[in-house]
């Protein structure tokens, strides 16, 4: 499937331009990987990095930071903002190609692969596994759960009921495809990894009828 034109359009319209590191991601990185005590040779890759909210967090611990996004527009902005490692920020569809020769100690996916269908996510996980050093980690947050209140409100793909679209209001309006997961699917997709941590969170926000629900996971090669 690859990167959606919808997300490129959102970035060009200055939407979803998060600038602060995501707390859940920070917590999982510091609790489950050697990032905080690395020797400077620790290599980190963020796939689907968006506006680069998490990149300054990684820079706190290592100067071996790389990033991918499918939007040429957002990558151009990031190269200007992070000129010190601009050569390591690239335009790519990470479900088809991770264009780096070096392997990584940590690959991070904060709500990026969740906007693909099941087959594309499976292909991405295979690529990520190959790109990790032995013992390296893949951390994924915000894989939406089938318990999410918007799961039943989306239009399922004909041969992939986990992938939904057609949202004209709410948090998934204008983002194209949205993938939802249950535990069985996660275990099947990640079976070549060691499953270090799996967390399911349900949130209820006052004034919003539909509950939120998402998975976070830490995988190790």
Automatic annotation (TrEMBL):
Presence of the UniProt keyword Methyltransferase in the record: yes
Assigned keywords, A-Z: Methyltransferase, Transferase
CDD domains attached to this UniProt entry: AdoMet_MTases
GO terms of molecular function: methyltransferase activity
BP term (GO), one: methylation
Domain of life: Bacteria
Pfam family, one: Methyltransf_23
Transferase found in the keyword field: yes
Protein name, entry field: Class I SAM-dependent methyltransferase
Organism for this UniProt entry: Pseudoalteromonas aurantia
